């Protein structure tokens, strides 16, 4: 098992335990990701929660960052969803049908006209001379871009009047932009915009609705630029180059700077309005991309062509550090230390005998040190084997058997030490309910469960010592319809005996559970499996799944994987490559296990966009 320590951010810092009359503050330290043993908790005094009034709208380190950057960071999820739209993926791969691109360009003309008008309105509203000059420059850039679009459309013989009527998604954005620029902003009364100072706020609102579009296109252009390398001919090179050019990147930055400048005198309530406008614009951009009529099939979202009568989609996921911010063993360890008696006089009668708190803390330190040293030795020993010239699953499997033996020995030491004795089931469930999951994780699983047409199965495979902790962490988010495969505490009158029902202790146990679940599925449907993990213990499952997705930055996982010929490919790059390879073929055959390729993702939002779309 991986032993990692808890962070103050993990749970609500105040939890009332069953054997204490006081509210106890929890504080913990983080240690190397493969270490699952608790070493030395921070003093509880240092972990006091901040009063609600002291909590900033944005993190402290971002206080000096302008509103434009803050909003871009806050709504990063939306930029990921825009990138993973079938239109953008097809364009990046060069397989986008030309008629679709022509339609897109024609719709973009309406966008640009609306932008030019909004810039003009913003320029008239602001009383800042420097801002007027900057907005005027941006408006001129849009007019030049319109001229370029017009010449392209004429080359293609497209009549703007006859063939370029607005589609509903385009109209939604242009109407939104026109309304904002004219002062029809939710939460703002027209009477409040009578003075020159008040009208300058309107310029800020207009830029709040336009800035996300500029930044999003600059971002997408940069992301797509990588797919031009090594390509002799890419049909959309000119489009990609235009948005990666110094001129456009500078315009995007200039728009953000102007938004920041005009937002300086705004109140907190007015900044909230900017934030809402920014978010709405991002969502409308996604809608615009999704509205482009694709002729060819797209490989994403993965669930797009899923028919429950013919297909079976099964999502597998690790728990610790894949779903969670920190490792579950840290929670259990800290509960054990805090609830343990502090002296012989404090020992409750007629309960399971427990170590004193100080002794328990020292024992955890010794277990942690031994585990860390032996784990590192195991990894080093694996790397002494001759490096594979190509993907070698069999040798990797055999090598991980030794790591599995080590993990089981480590667990035996834990149970024999008695450190897990006397934990109250209700304390464990409360800690699970307060457990912080990775951003986007809960939303992903909720979206799968709520989609009745998908009818997908979810299985969580974990080394966690206590399955009740996992179940309570998901149930707090309303996620009950998933299957948990983990170890279980043995309880006696709601108190843990210190023994564990050992079900999933090692990489071999995990892959055996994974294979058993797949075998138990009927053979009357086409299977598609996705496994999401973050550690060496997940390697075999990741490789056997049709799509293996690695979250996080585990160096040991990549080092061991590379040693046995495993390739790690960024998920978006892999999707674009699949779109290129699978054009015109049965998409169900695009993703197959044991290919030796794993895909790396930076967030659950990226996985959500890939599997489910926006």
UniProtKB/TrEMBL annotation:
Organism: Nicotiana tabacum
Gene: LOC107819674
Domain of life (superkingdom): Eukaryota
One GO process term, biological-process aspect: thiamine metabolic process
Gene Ontology annotations for the cellular component aspect, listed alphabetically: cytosol
Protein name per the record: Bifunctional TH2 protein, mitochondrial
Stored Pfam families: TENA_THI-4
Transmembrane segment boundaries: none
Entries under InterPro entries matching the protein: HAD-like_sf (IPR036412), HAD_sf (IPR023214), Haem_Oase-like_multi-hlx (IPR016084), Thiaminase-2/PQQC (IPR004305), Thiamine_Salvage_TenA (IPR050967)
Residues in Thiaminase-2/PQQC domain copies: 86-289
